[in-house]
User: Fold this.
Amino acid sequence: NAGVMQNPRHLVRRRGQEARLRCSPMKGHSHVYWYRQLPEEGLKFMVYLQKENIIDESGMPKERFSAEFPKEGPSILRIQQVVRGDSAAYFCASSPRGKGQETQYFGPGTRLLVL
Amino acid sequence: AQKITQTQPGMFVQEKEAVTLDCTYDTSDPSYGLFWYKQPSSGEMIFLIYQGSYDQQNATEGRYSLNFQKARKSANLVISASQLGDSAMYFCAMSAGKGTYKYIFGTGTRLKVLA
Assistant:
């Protein structure tokens, strides 16, 4: 009964490189959410996706960040031309129905360090 | 504006004693859900307990209970019989509004259980 899977767990990039973070939701869940946690802060919502659709990306920076959840395969959060300020923990969560106040189950996170 | 406030950056508790972690929230929406998550030093986010705004009774899950005081807009987490493994960061979160899926997180409380 696998939970939400994220990989890699740790990612080191130099400024200007690209970062790709992957998330496989729990079995039976088709709703995926990405959150970012800066050091010593709470998590902040970035984007909500269903299969092949971005439902809400209001928390995503307008530039360099993109997300997808293809019909087959994991959800991908992509950060182009990373900067030091992108260093953070990125969490993916999933839920079965995407309804209001539904419990979201989180993956272990990807810690991104930009040198 | 919707907001979650956790005013205790750090707490200590003796092993086997009970501890209360404070959480206050602000929303004008009558329909909302309140969640508590535990983040141990390994970094994952573990779901603990949920309280719906229309729930008549306080939620309980094993040693965790939620002291929900609607008029005061507080949703404090009570951990009974603390164990060393309870040492972690604890986050309160809210999802407010019918159909809303975004979680708003507090800044967290770091709990240390003393032997």
Notes: The first strand of chain B starts at residue 3 and ends at 5. The two ends of chain B are 41 Å apart (CA to CA). DSSP finds no helices and twelve strands in chain B. The mean pLDDT of chain B is 93.
